[in-house]
Amino acid sequence: MLLRIFVLLLYCNGLNANILQEAIDKAPAGSILKLPKGIYKGSVVINKPLSIIGQEEGVIIDGENNGTVITSKSSYVTLRNLTIVNSGDRHENVDAAIAMSESKQCEISNCTIKNCLFGIDLQMVNNSIIQNNTISSKPFALGLRGDGLKLWYSNDNIVRGNRLIKSRDMVVWYSHGNLIEENFGKDGRYSLHFMYAGKNIIKNNYYELNSVGIFFMYSQDSIAVGNVIKSSQGATGMGIGLKDASNFTIKDNTVIYCAQGLYIDRSPFEPGTHNTIVDNKILYNAEAMHFHSLSENNIIKNNIIQGNIEDIVNDSRGSKTNENEISGNYWDKYEGFDKNHDGIGDTPHKVYQYADQLWVYNSNVKFFYASPVISLLNFLAKLAPFTKPLFLMEDKKPRVVKPL
Fold it and tell me: 59: part of which helix (H) or strand (E)?
């Protein structure tokens, strides 16, 4: 309590621009610094167990556009109810609002981060909570912004309820066992990008108007459930991507209004493994599922595939699209019947590549995509094929009624 009064008096008298750093240095390990409303000079370093809590709105820590605003190098550090602004803009220095490293059981919660190149940068941080923070980067072009939230060799953390708006990416690299749930991302590049990461749970997040929703690369043993990815547009627009990803469960997600709904590239990668893609809604995308390179042994069941321009796209003849287990999905393009009214089509749903998919191998043809000439070529190819269409896949038990 004496320490808290000391901090208040120093601030109110304006005796020292480095008041916050002085208070941190003088505080015994385990102290709680409760800051009143005001502007505090940033570029502070925490090297002991400590809590810094804004006791009311308007507690601003200002980095003055120089370096990282708060650097923490200790376990058992809590940062709560703070507004952190104006980091430096040097990528090579990873100028951030908060840089936390080599620690455990820390908390960053209810903080607002503005005009900081990188938001929260975690390196070798374990068993910690990052929740209910609002993060935006500096007003640079998309590729020049920093990552809103980065986990690097950081395991067993809870990342919940954060809002990343107009930052670049949220990345989870070399990090395992994290729970990432109920986050929101908008106007960024990668809403969520995994690399060399395993045993993570990605649950009930909402991402819209980003270049890519969720992308799993060189990763394994993770679950993505209940997420909504909306309006990933542009040349790289993608809802959920799997590249060299093994033993994933993609369940009960909604992917809507994207250039590519699901992108599957050499996945599963590890021999003897499967990826399970079930109970998802893949709606009104340019491409529902895009296969690239060798991609077999995926289990694709009980999904709703509706309103997409193309249901299946295979851009490489070696991808073996037909060697995935595809069954029990609802396809709005299915043309069969259900005479016994069991909800399952009487004939398989087969997908072929006709003339309208010439653009897959020749990007110049895409200029005519959805034009009358391509539609006419496609109709003629089905009516009287002048070349053998390429068989892509079949669903042996297509649903004629949408799953609940």
Answer: strand 59-62
Give the C-alpha separation, 147 to 140, whole Å: 12
Query: Which DSSP symbol is given to 389?
Result: P
- In whole angstroms, what is the distance from residue 395 CA to residue 186 CA? 35
Of 213, 335, 362, residue with least CA distance to 282: 213
CA-closest candidate to residue 397, choices 331, 333, 309: 331
pLDDT tens, residue by residue, 117-131: 999 999 999 999 999
CA atoms within a 13 Å half-sphere pointing along the CA-CB vector of 216: 31
Query: Contact at 8 Å (CB) between 250 and 216?
Result: no
Label residue 191 exposed, middle or buried (CB < 10 Å: 0-12, 13-18, 19+): buried
Q: How many other β-carbons are positioned within 10 Å of the β-carbon of residue 206?
A: 18
- Rounded to whole angstroms, the Cα distance separating 228 from 184 reads 10
Residue 319: phi and psi, rounded to 5, are: -80, -15
Contacts of 388 (CB under 8 A, 6+ apart): none
Name 394's bridge partners.
350
Residue 28: asked if its preceding bond is cis (omega within 30°), the reply is no
* Model confidence at 12: pLDDT above 70: no
Specify whether the CB–CB gap between 348 and 324 falls below 8 A.
no
pTM across the whole model:
0.88
Counting Cα atoms < 13 Å in the Cβ hemisphere of 278 gives: 11
